[in-house]
Amino acid sequence: MLAKFILLFIVWIGLTNSLNIQELIVGAVVAFTVARFFTPNRELHLRKLALKYIKFIPIFLKNLVQSNIAVAKIVLNPKLPINTGIVKLQTSLKDDYDKLILANAITLTPGTITVELRDKELFIHILNMGSLDREVLQKEIVDELERGITHN
Q1: Confidence of residue 131 (pLDDT cuts 50, 70, 90)
Q2: Reduced to 3 states, what is the DSSP secondary structure of residue 115?
Q3: In angstroms, rounded to a whole number, what is the distance separating the alpha carbons of residues 121 and 29?
Q4: In what order do the strands lie in the sheet with 85-90?
Q5: What is the pTM for the complete model shown?
Q6: How far is C-alpha 5 from the geometric centre of its chain's CA atoms?
Q7: Phi, psi (rounded to 5 degrees) for 133
Q8: Which of 10, 71, 80, 85 has a CA positioned 20 to 30 A from the CA of residue 41?
C-alpha cells in the first residue's frame, strides 16, 4: 500500500504542478484514499506495468510532437484545406487497461479524439485526414501506438 500511495502522490504532484501546502495535503488525502480503498479485483504488478508503460512514453512523445507540428501548420495557415471526419479503426489489444491507454493517447495527441471505444473498435475524430484509406489511418494512428504498448 505504501508503494501505491507514493506513486499516486507523485502523480498528483506532477498533475497539479504545485508544491502549495494545501494542494499537497489534498493530494496526500486523495492518494491515501485511492491506495487504501480502491484496489482492483485482481492483483496488478505495479513494477511490471510501470516498466511496460515507461517504454511506451518515447513512442507517444514522438507522435505527440509530430501531431503538434501538423496542427500548428493548420492553425498558422488557415487557408490550408482540412478534411475532418470520424473513422472506425481496430485495436488488437486484449487487456482493458491497454485499450484505455491507447484511447487516451490518441485523444491526447492533437488533431485526434477517441469518441468511443467499443470492444476492439475505436471511433476516432480526425482533424485532418491526410488519407481516406482506412489501412493508412490504421497504421498511422493505432498500429504504432499499439506497438509501444505491447512492446515488452
Answers
A1: confident
A2: strand
A3: 37
A4: 85-90, 121-126, 112-118
A5: 0.66
A6: 22
A7: -80, 120
A8: 10
